[in-house]
Write a sequence for this structure.
C-alpha cells in the first residue's frame, strides 16, 4: 500500500513540477508588473518545493520500494536519470536568484522592469529545464522494463 502511495506521489509531484515550470514560462515577459513578478517568484518557489519532493519520493522508491538499491546502482540509465535531474536543478538556481531579486526591486521601485536580455536568457533556461525533465520519464520507463 505504501509502495502505491509513494509511486502515486512521485507522479503527482512530477506533474506539479512541470506545471509550475510551464506557468513560469508563460509569466516571464519583457514587461512585467508587480503582480506578475510576485506570481513568478511564488511559482518558482512551488517549482523548487515540488522538485525537492520529487527527489524525496524518488529516494523512497530507490531505498525502500520497487527493485532495490543494487538494481538501480548497477543501471547506467538510472545514473543518467539522476544526472539529468541534478543538471535541471542546478541550472534553475540562476533564474531563482534573479526572480527573488526582481521581487525585492519591484517593492522598492514600482516602475522596475527586468532587463530584456535577462528575460530572454531565463526563458531559454526554462526551455532547457523543460526539455531535460521531458526526457527523464523515458529513462524511468526503460529502467522499469529492465533496460
Ligand atoms: C524530473 C524528475 C523525475 C521524473 C520525471 C521521474 C519519472 C519517473 C517515472 C515516470 C517513473 C515510473 C516508471 C515506470 O513505472 O514505468 C519513475 C520511477 C522511479 N523513479 Fe523517478 N522521476 C524523477 C526523479 C527521480 C529521482 C530524483 C529519483 C531518485 C532519487 C527517482 C527514482 C525513481 C525510482 C527508484 C523509480 C522506480 C523505477 C522502477 O519502477 O523500477 N526518480 N520515475
Amino acid at each position: 500500500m505504501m509502495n502505491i502511495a509513494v509511486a502515486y506521489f512521485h507522479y503527482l509531484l512530477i506533474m506539479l513540477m512541470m506545471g509550475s515550470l510551464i506557468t513560469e514560462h508563460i509569466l516571464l515577459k519583457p514587461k512585467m508588473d508587480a503582480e506578475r513578478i510576485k506570481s513568478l517568484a511564488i511559482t518558482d518557489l512551488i517549482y523548487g518545493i515540488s522538485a525537492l519532493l520529487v527527489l524525496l519520493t524518488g529516494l523512497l522508491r530507490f531505498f525502500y520500494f520497487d527493485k532495490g538499491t543494487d538494481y538501480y546502482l548497477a543501471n547506467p540509465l538510472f545514473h543518467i536519470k539522476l544526472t539529468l535531474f541534478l543538471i535541471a536543478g542546478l541550472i534553475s538556481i540562476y533564474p531563482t536568484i534573479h526572480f527573488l531579486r526582481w521581487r525585492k526591486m519591484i517593492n522598492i521601485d514600482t516602475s522596475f522592469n527586468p532587463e530584456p536580455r535577462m528575460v530572454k536568457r531565463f526563458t531559454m533556461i526554462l526551455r532547457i529545464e523543460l526539455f531535460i525533465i521531458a526526457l527523464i520519464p523515458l529513462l524511468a520507463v526503460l529502467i522499469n522494463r529492465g533496460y
